[in-house]
Every structure is written in C-alpha cells, then in structure tokens.
Amino acid sequence: MVTFGRTVQKTHMWLNELSAQMAWEGQEKAYAALRATLHALRDRLPPAEAAEFGAQLPMLIRGFYYEGWSPTGKPLKERRKKQFLAHIDEELKDRHLGSSEDIARSVFKVLRHRITQGEMQDVTHVLPREIRKLFD
Question: Per residue in 26-35, pLDDT tens?
Fold first, then answer.
C-alpha cells in the first residue's frame, strides 16, 4: 500500500523534474503545466487507455489527472497538434508560462522517464501522428 508521504515525495520528484526542464523556480508553474497537459492528453485517449495510463501515475497526480473528467464523448476527435495545444493554452490562460508546445514536450519527457515504456507505447500508439510527434 502506498503511503501518503511516499506519494507526496513522488509528486515532488515529478514537479521538480519538470521545473528543472522549463527553468522555473518552485513547483507552482510545474503543477499547472503538468495538470493542463495531462488533461489534454486524457481527453484525447479512449477511456480504457486513459484509465490504464492513469493507473501508472502517483496517487496525487492521478487525482488531478482525473479531476473534472467525464469519459462521455471521449476521445476527442481532434487530430491536429494545434487543436491539442489549444486545450493546454485554454487551461493555462493568463499564466504566461511559455509556449504550450514547449510545455507539452517537457511534460511528455517527464512521462517517458516516469511511466513504463510499454504504457507509453500504448498511449502514443492511439494518438494521431501530429500529436505523437510532441513525444519526440
């Protein structure tokens, strides 16, 4: 069983890694960027894959990953990178954290480092090519 302290520690590790990649001080910006990107990704995945992916996340991150989620009408049918990034922009509006593409690429780099290779292959396999390229 995962203890609360352990999931807090894992969450800090994820946020610190993202903060370092984006050259941000503290974790507030990293939290907002991670949350927005995970929401955009979650809504683009078929519900079963979204749930399998969510099971790989630390408990606290899993909580904000699922926050506000409704599997009805998912996955979103958008196929273009611009449309995917617009979801991140909308969630981060007025935060001035930088380019949504840079944010997505940095979050996806953290995911590749922290999530099993098999699960990441499953996730990228169901994404359209333009969106999948953000994982490169």
Answer: 899 999 999 9
Position 80 scores a pLDDT of 96
Give CA–CA dist 135/130, Å, rounded.
10
Angstrom distances, CA of residue 101 to CA of 30, 45, 66: 14, 18, 22
Whole-prediction pTM: 0.94
Q: 8-32: string of b/e by CB count within 10 Å (b at 16+)? A: eebbeebbebbbebbebeebebbbe
Residue 52 CA to residue 5 CA, distance in Å, equals 24
> Residue 45: which residues within 8 A CB-CB, separation 6 or more?
53, 74, 75, 123, 126, 127
Q: Is the dihedral of CA 89, 73, 79, 118 positive or negative?
A: positive
Is the domain spanning 4-135 CATH 3.20.20.10? The answer is no
pLDDT in tens, 89-103: 999 998 889 999 999
